[in-house]
## 1
Amino acid sequence: MSTEMQNEAEIFRGTTEGSTSFKDSRSVRGTPKAGMPAFVLGEELAQMAATDDRIVVATADLASANRTNDFREAYPERFFDFGIAEKNMITSAAGMAACGLVPYVATFASFSAILGAEQIRTDCAYPRMKVRVVGTHSGMSMGFYGTSHHALEDLGMMRTIADLTVVCATDANHLRAILRVSADHPGAMYIRLGRGRDPVVYDTVPDITIGKAIRLREGTDLTIIATGSQVRASLDAAEVLAGRGLSVRVVDMHTISPLDRKEIAAAAQETKAILTVEEHNITGGLGTAVAEVLVDLPRVPFLRHGVPDRFVEVGPPAALYAHYRLDASGLVAVATEFLGL
Amino acid sequence: MPEPSNVSLEVLKDRAKFIRTETVRLSRIAGAGHYSSTFSCAEILSALYYSQLRIEPSRPDWDDRDRFVMSKGHAAIGLYPVLADLGYFDPAELETYTRLGSKYGDHPDMKKVRGLDFSSGSLGHGLSVGLGIALAGRVQKKNYRTYVLLGDGEMAEGQIWEAAMAAGHFKAGHLVALLDRNGLCIDGHTEDIMSIEPITDRFASFGWGVQRCDGHDLPQVLDAFARLPDGTTGKPQVIVFDTVKGRGVKRMEMSLDWHVGNLVGEDYDDVMAELDAGLKPYEVEPAE
């Protein structure tokens, strides 16, 4: 489904339908609209907790928005709502991890990764605590809620922290896969999500390995290396480009740190050009990370595509994606310009 | 399960002296040390480690042990000798203090220091760490206590009050904050730089049980520990220890010059002799 169909109030309640005491208006609680991708964060963690008593979950006054309330319903004694106090939540989670628990702490990426960056570095990554910091609604998926609620710098900030694994979830099934492997992954992790109801890439839960990219489509003329919410758009763009006779490889680079250097080297060797696509400031994120690998390899035409190094406009998410050419048609235009077609 | 032991006051006084002399000795290896912040909490650390904590140095990972978080991590120089003395590691390891590749830096690293429950150094974090440890104890159905040593300067950090609020809200009765109220931060008196009083009222209003006493008077320190209710009251506890920054070395007491310093030559010997003689009554110099 496209983001246009989403009610922009659902971000705070996690659903689009619900009862209201008013006649025509609609508050946003209740059950999701039929056909809407599920936001599986809390549900999957609750399933995992059934057989893993190390798992605890915390949020900062956004249990509805990130659906950790699904976990709270199942395991109230293993759930903590810290209120709007993210620093305390992240550091407390580190204390819990020191006792052998595996805490998942979730809030908007702007307030987990960006506001909590020092707590993530000093209290989670440095002592190698198994804290899983989940950043939901990353990038500019908060649309007209504005820059305070956007996270277009989080990958750049997180990937420079030693001993911190940084992973982007592509869709619901991919998120389930990440969560499942995360429970036994060593050290701290930052898990970046889009809106949580992102367009489907994986029909079933994929078999993933942290640090190993997934090649979703083969090709020889161009490799699009994408992450998170941009994987779906990249696949759609590749399909359009295929109709124009271009053979396009698409790679889901879900782990930003540690980066899959082999997959990047393969793209440089086997395809004629590389385009990185991310919903992130063009500085410091996926494109920069890939560039750091390519600089050591024989030269290949390379373009980074993301959000320009400016604070973005206000607008509904779909309008922003179109404006910044981060939807399928925008990516087609970026790719054809890049290839000089 | 070992319980808090009845060690004599003489032993505790001696161990407080040991904390101070080791701080001076190790600082000379480093060429710099946090003397005065460590001197102010010497009696607190001595009473805590030698009489209060339920720990077994032979089993640093024992699940039921009491936990200690040194939020004012810059006083770790006073903690390392205690951990070594209790048998967590060979005291000879401290000869490497701060040298390249040493396990023992100015701020403590839990991945390197045996017996250390959490790393610290960035002020304002420790109370949250302690809260998380206390909440883990609830999830895991343990009844250990978690003690957090706070500096008074770090009371200006917002995260302290996030943690204080949450501890009251979550009824973390097994969490005990120990505030080393030595009166000074780096730039001056806390009440001039960023006032924290009335500190007991502030904690009480966040749902904490509060005590206040002289942090250099060991009978008072022990009495405050003895008065801590068991965790079932659901009220986090704070003991505000009124202390003197630099206590034990006359020229450092309430001096802004000795937050970090380096004693060498005759001064080193003089200070060691002064410390060896034991604490004299504290006298405030008349203002000039």
Note: Chain B is about 35% helix and 10% strand.
## 2
Amino acid sequence: MFEIVRILYRELHYQIVKRNPLVANDEKRFKKQLKNALSIKRNLALQSLAFIFFGIFMASGIILSDNKIVISSLAVSLALVPFIFSLYVTAVQSSYVVSLGLFEPLKSLPIRVGALYLSELLLIDISVSLSIVLPSAIVLLIKFPINGLLFLLWVLVGILAGHSIGLLIFSLFGLRIAHRKTRGQMLKNLFKILGLFAFMSMFYALSYLQEYISKNSEKFASFFGKYIVAYPFSVASIFEPSKSLVFLTGYFIGISILYYFSISKVWKEILEPKITSEKGKAEGFKSSFGGTIFALTLKDLRVIFRKTSMLTGFLVPIYFVFPQLFIALRSGNLSKEQVFGLLFLIGLFSTSGADAILKVEGKEMDFLRTLPISKGQFILSKAFSMSLIPMILASLILGLGTYFDSATLYLIPYVVLLPLNVSLLTMLLLFRYKGKEIGIPEINFGEVLALFLVNSVLLAFIGIPAFIINAPKGLAISYAIALLSLFLMLKKIKG
Amino acid sequence: MIEVHELYKVFGNNIAVNGISFTVHDGEIYGLLGPNGSGKSTTMKILAGILKPTKGRALIEGVEVVKDPIKVKEIVGYVPETPTLYESLTPSELFDLVGKIRKLPREELEERVNYFVKAFGVEEYLDQFIGTLSFGTQQKVSLITALLHDPKVLILDEAMNGLDPKSARILRELLLEFKKEGKSILFSTHVLPLAEMICDRIGVIYQGKIIAEGTIEELKEKAHEENLEDVFLKLTESKDEILTVVQALKEAL
């Protein structure tokens, strides 16, 4: 079985390297890259290396502290990373893998659940995220062996949970094909997004359920009162091994059932995607307004909204913004300062959309290459596509903030400037190759981390004046810096 | 006009194109014939500005393919052997995308799309997602996208693949019409009678080299054969091989 996974892995990475203009036109580099990319061990080692430094940095908190409350809260934050990573990689990568046609040759073979290969293929990439938690887990295992082991088990369950939910999202939203474009499509897409968001927020829903049970049942209050059942908060229970084991077993059973269900559903849908056919008569061709960049951006958005599982990449900021928004709203207020922080957080997490936006084109890149598209036009269209969803999120937060405090409206330029700055810088860095041809640069997780760092620096430059100088002067300087950096980046793209 | 001078393309240790030269004049249909893996598609991709040659020169209407591939793509209409279109877009949306990229005025785009979708019988599929269309219909959509900007040069890599007889006939007539308009057409096919029917000149490519070139009559004369199929098999050293294989199969069965 692993032989098939190995072949699929090689094929996937060959396709990625082949379409990467950073290396495709440089034969020496191409061969070297191919050597690394086609070997599972080598590829995993290289990617884990990027993560392990981050992991060691995160482990320092556990090394320096013996306070169990501090350690358990650190464990909670750590456990979130592989879960989100797993969910994201599964939902986005599956769509890409299937669109590359990797499973076409397997369809005609007598295979019962071929999606197991897809699952293993994705788990190889997901396993890289373990190196973020591994240093902390090792420290914990040395300091508190049983609790350390429990932590490691929670992380593994978290990975499986993210993977299973990702598969379910993919089977429900990623594979269904509508036969015909209809007028109700927009509304349907909106419902699909809401459904997707509901899946991603299911653990938050669990915490509500828990709160409800604690309030309404004295019998369960003592059990549920101390720990939050929802993952990753449940990881905090590692210092009470028996309770933690109960939670863990419950999670494991539930998630295993979900995994089995999702994997079968995915294969069924890969073999025969459900085609929902709507009655309708084709209308004649009508051309729309707009230029090349607008048309390319519109194409990206159409593809993303129709392959809804790819949207997961753009909804990642919500996962990080939601808890803070939730805490703020619980206090019955959303201050201008809190909105300021949330807008910068959305701006920074726009970075996570880069991977998804570069996965819009699989084989289709060969088609785009036949058209007269300049590198600058392509970069701009990708940056616009990448920043649009964060802009919508930011405007919703701003709207909510303005409801509580009308002075928040002064932050309106940030809604556009922050995601756009981050997206443009991200794309400029990713498309840094020489030459004018268009292509899809390979983006690995180490690179995403580096992009997060670079974008944090950019946002710090933009944000600090507003932070240290009183409004309106501070804000005006901040906006001027943001506009200047946009101008410089646009000049660089055009040049 | 297409001009190719000593063109090479090397992939690792494999020489896909080995120093070929040929010219396709205005108002000419040039057939590039060759067995699988002979370098036809690689040559066509280089001429369409998609691949960079390892060595040599290629000019499309006087524009160097290596120096200005974007300009080349503006001039050329290219149809690949397998369509790789966006499956989650509809043909309408794809035509609109291509029209915008090619900067076609709205009215002209609408007029040309409506003309070609009618000609190839794609009207009823305009609002269906491309992923749900048959291979043949996808090929027609791919063809239309290549013809939208009224290209001066056409590069068609087995463009008749998957087309029903009616559409194949329409394309054939269109190509002859384009030829009259003075367009240069580079055409590859495995259907030799078709090549015999529409090509003014033929280049036989084998192992990355042009091994014979001329009008069909010239090639027949050179190879001392009656029809293009025999000429082709003789030139690519396949005729004796075929007889041996058929004989072996007969004996085995």
Note: Chain A has a mean pLDDT of 82.
## 3
Amino acid sequence: MDGPDRAQERLQARAPETELIREAQAGSRAAFDALVRQYEQQVLRLALHLTGSEHDAEDIYQEAFLKAFRYIGNFRFECSFYTWIYRIVTNLCLDQLRRKKTRREDQAVVVDQSGDEIDVLSSVSDNRSFSNPGKELDRKVLGERIQAALSKLTPRERMVFELKHYQGLRLRTIGEMLNTTEETAKNTLFRATKKLRTQLAGLR
Amino acid sequence: MNCELAHERIVLAAYGELPDEQVHELDRHLAACTDCSQEREQLLALKTLATAYPVTELDPNFVARSRMRLEEALDAIPPKRWYERMGQRILNNFASLQAAPVAAVLLLIVGGGAGTLGGYEYAAARSAHTAAGIAALAQAKADAQPIESAPEIANISSIEREPNSEIVHVTYNTVTPQHIQGSLDDPSIRQLLMLASENASSAGVRDDSVGLLAAECRAGHGCQGEGIRDALMQALRYDKSVAVREKALEGLQPYVAEDMRVRDAVLEALLNDSDARIRTTAISILEPVEADTSVRQVLSTVANSDHNPHIRTVSRQVLSRAPEIQ
């Protein structure tokens, strides 16, 4: 038999998202916190991979959920909450990518808590090559080349490629998130893959 | 198929976005075209290369730090006052009215109808009272006269006997039954079926109407409009009869991939429906969108917490089958 705690947990896990949204709209901070917990991992992972910087990812995460908190009253269930929150996040990421494009030269740095900069790719490990430093180095160099090639894409192409290739979303959903059509998302993905192949031609 | 189109389709196929019938067409083209075949090899190589910059697991400290910072910022925002929330609600309601003029028109019609009915009831009650004296004088005559419209009596709303008299006042409502026949594609028939699916008091009538609407959707007969889908979603969410909900679910199956609202309704059924059969059917219906993040989230919740062991097992199987969203 399940204990009362287990039953309570199950009840919480089943609490429909719609109810949480309505409660958050009515001013419940606890309901909004529950929504944050539901989506924070995805938001942080997307922002971190796109920007390559923990600092930027944290800023985007914070700004996105603050915006969501302020404007949750405007959410009218015309799309899923997931699409709505991703729309906010992708817009912030696009702004960040645009700003970065003007000032960055393919640096992938992370500013850790103490303020020191570290190379993000050096922290990317791969178990398969863990025991082989040569292979690890090759992989690191390859990772840097991929990141450099990704940074040559326009912010929109980068975003569509990220959402499709790395986050595995459907093109229709991507179109909805970026306020455009599935057809446009498809064309953007096509352009992005073409550019990346040109950029990475020497590696194959 | 020309090579330019093939190049586009190669990208879509590589990302699982090409419909099956076009995949076969593309395969035939690739078998005969070396250039396009190379193009596909290059794209697959790019996909492999791109894994060298993977999406990494998040450091729990990083997540905790971000959350703490957010909580501090949220704490600093003063809570909305009641009149601000009220204003927001009014604005939202106004916006939904703008977005749904049909709802506004319906409200107007319902209001007008209620007013007319109220007026009619009042006038009927008054005339019943004034007619009482005449009725007493003509009692014998009235005894001999059957109520001509007896078959049209819908219900008796009140019966009142005059004190120390044989005179009885009966207030009854009449209704004229109507019959209509036509094709399932006829908009007025569809309208009646949709009304029946929501309002019929008999589960049998709801079952018939939802069954017919669902069959139309499954057969692809003009369910592109939102009315029928809405009626099926409504039935799936709120109908008390399991058979009706099951039929509604089956009718929604063709639209789960293309209509996010349908997907969400099926997810709600998977999470909340009390009947295990409905939840099992919902899992199988979600197959075309099982890689979607929200679907995976619901499946993992169900895999952990559904009280039916079979449903938990099936959810786990689907989760292990679908590619990871990474």
Note: The radius of gyration of chain A is 20 Å.
## 4
Amino acid sequence: MKSLLISLLLLGAGLASGCTLQPVQPWQRGVLAQSEMAWDVDPLMATQRRQMQVSKEAASGGPTLGGGGCGCN
Amino acid sequence: MSARSLGSAVLLLSAAMLFPAAATAVEVGAAAPSLRAADAAGRELSLQSLRGQVVYVDFWASWCAPCRVAMPHYQRWQQQWAALGFTVLGVNVDTVRADAERALKRAPVSFPVLYDPQGQWAETFALPTMPTAYLIGRDGVIHYIHAGFREQDLPALEARILSLLGVSR
């Protein structure tokens, strides 16, 4: 019974190790180059949204820059 | 099944999970691994079947810009030196075959291109980067590993290949 418990514990550890991040190998980088892996699927739409956010939120730089500012530019 | 035998089975399983098979890197001076893959026509090709020739195994992908810059140069080598017992062997690692075919339509090549969408060859060779090419002599031994590609590397590369072919410039 004890050995079963230890084994189950080890199995759990083994399964959990599957959740660790595996480095992307050089030949797998094509997947990262696919459009669905991009932050913004449509770059034109993203630019427009950023423009909208800059003007509405008065935060120059849009979502990519930290900090506020007076919003007067 | 007793708890003990069940326990040992689970133990074995967990050990297998904790220590996955590690890929061994291919080095200069080592024999090229024997691998098989199919080309566009579905014909099986292996490095073994090219023994006796000087082989330049080039790992490439459509998303890899330097790989595509290199392609026309490799095609020129193939045309110039095929009669001397030289061949380029392209190994494409694209996961989508159509991407590779589109790239080949833009830069057609006459040397054999194998498709390795699962990355089986890439894993065996443990590519350090993309592109990586392996210069294999007539004896099946790896003589040189070229990681990356720049056009200024060409003269040195060509000199290496020609010396393996036994041609003096």
Note: Helices of chain A lie at 2-17, 29-32, 43-57.
